[in-house]
Write a structure and sequence with these properties.
single chain, alpha+beta, 6-stranded mixed beta sheet, 5-stranded antiparallel beta sheet
C-alpha cells in the first residue's frame, strides 16, 4: 500500500518540526528517514502513523484520505526503539496481544491465533523461545519479538522508530541484514527512522534525508551518496575534506595555498590518493600526522605544507601496506572526485 504525504506542516509552540513536507512511498517499498536530531524525521513518522496530527497538509494511504483518521483505523504496525514489550507476558503472548484485543467480530479464534503466532515465531527465528519472558531474551531477540508483534495484525504499513538504536554495534549490524531479508520476504510497505547513515544506506530501497523540518534529498542509497544535491547531504553522509579551489579550464581544478579561492571542493577521505612522489600539478605536498592502520580501511591524517590544512584519508589496505607510512614523513596527496556545488546540481571532477 502506497503512502502520500502532501505539504505537511507541524509546529510545537514556536518550533517548526515539519515545514511543507512532501513524500511518496511506493507500495512494498522500504524507505529510511535519515537526518540529525531535530530534523523532523520522528515527527513525520508519527504523523504518518496518526500519533501526531499535522497543523496543515494531508496524508493518504492507497489514495484514500487518512489525515484525521485515528491511529487504530490506519492499520499501521509500529516498532519502537525500546521494544515496549509486556514484561509479564511470554514471547508468545506478546506477539498474540494485538490479535486477542481486537473487537469480538474481528477477532480470530484461538486456533487461528496460535497458528498466526507460530508462523511469526518461525519468521523471526525464535520458534524455541515462545514460553520465555522478555527479561530472559537478548536485546536483539526482544526487538525481533517487537517486530513480530507489529506484524501479527497484518498491518498495511510498518513504521519503525530507531528500531536498532538501543542495541550494540554488532547486534545492530546483524539485525540490519535480518530486517532487509525479512522485508524481501513479506514486502510490507515500511518506513523506518534512523540517524545512522550506514544503516540507512545498507537497508533501504530509498533514503529520505531531512534537515530542519525539510527534505533535502530523496533517492536510492547509491544516488544520495554518489550525487548529493548540496553540501549538507555530502557532509552528513560521511566525512568530508573541504578544499578551496578554482577552475582552470573546462575540467581542471587548482588548489591554491590561500583560503580566498572562489570555490570550495568537497572530497571524501576515500578519494584522497597518497603517493611518494609528485607526477602532476594537482599533487599537494603534505606531512603525515596520524596513522590508524587497524581494520579493513586504514585512516591517515595529513597536513598540507603550503597552508597547514589537515586532510583525512582512507586508504585501501593493500595501498596502505605498500606505502608503509610513518608519522612525520613527507608525501604527496591528490584529491579526486571533487564535488563543487553551484546553483543547482554538483559537479564532479
Amino acid at each position: 500500500m502506497g503512502i502520500e504525504v502532501n505539504k505537511i506542516t507541524k509546529k510545537f509552540g514556536t518550533y517548526t518540526a515539519l515545514d511543507q513536507v512532501d513524500l511518496e512511498v511506493c507500495s512494498g517499498e522500504l524507505v529510511a528517514l535519515l537526518g540529525p536530531s531535530g530534523s523532523g524525521k520522528t515527527t513525520l513518522l508519527r504523523v504518518i502513523s496518526g500519533l501526531e496530527t499535522p497543523d496543515a497538509g494531508s496524508v493518504h494511504f492507497a489514495g484514500e484520505e487518512a489525515t484525521r483518521r485515528h491511529v487504530r483505523e490506519r492499520q499501521v504496525g509500529f516498532v519502537f526503539q525500546h521494544y515496549a514489550l509486556f514484561r509479564h507476558m511470554t514471547v508468545f503472548d506478546n506477539i498474540a496481544f494485538g490479535l486477542t484485543v481486537k473487537p469480538k467480530g474481528q477477532r480470530l479464534d484461538k486456533g487461528r491465533i496460535r497458528e498466526r503466532v507460530n508462523q511469526l515465531l518461525h519468521l523471526i527465528q525464535l520458534d524455541n523461545l515462545a514460553d520465555r519472558y522478555p527479561a530472559h531474551l537478548s536485546g536483539g531477540q526482544r526487538q525481533r519479538v517487537a517486530l513480530a508483534r507489529a506484524l501479527a495484525t497484518e498491518p498495511r504499513v510498518l513504521l519503525l522508530d530507531e528500531p536498532f538504536g538501543a542495541l550494540d554495534a554488532k547486534v545492530r549490524q546483524e539485525l540490519r541484514h535480518w530486517l532487509r531479508k525479512l522485508h524481501d520476504e513479506i514486502h510490507v510497505t515500511s518506513v523506518f527512522v534512523t540517524h545512522d547513515q550506514e544503516e540507512a544506506l545498507e537497508v533501504a530501497d530509498r533514503v529520505v534525508i531531512m534537515n530542519e523540518g525539510r527534505i533535502e534529498q530523496i533517492g536510492t542509497p547509491e544516488e544520495v551518496y554518489e550525487n548529493p544535491v548540496n553540501p549538507f547531504v555530502f557532509t552528513f553522509l560521511g566525512n568530508a575534506n573541504l578544499f578551496p579551489c578554482r577552475k582552470a579550464g573546462a575540467d581542471d581544478l587548482v588548489f591554491p595555498s590561500v583560503e580566498a579561492a572562489p570555490t570550495i571542493g568537497y572530497v571524501r577521505p576515500g578519494d584522497i590518493h597518497i603517493k611518494r612522489s609528485a607526477d602532476g600539478t594537482e599533487d599537494l605536498e603534505a606531512q603525515v600526522l596520524f596513522v590508524q592502520g587497524a581494520g579493513a580501511l586504514p585512516r591517515i591524517e595529513l597536513r598540507r605544507l603550503d597552508n597547514d590544512q589537515v586532510v583525512k584519508a582512507d586508504l585501501p589496505r593493500e595501498t596502505y601496506l605498500q606505502l608503509e607510512l610513518k608519522v612525520g614523513e613527507r608525501v604527496f596527496m591528490r584529491p579526486t572526485h571533487v564535488k563543487i556545488f553551484g546553483q543547482g546540481t554538483p559537479e564532479g571532477t
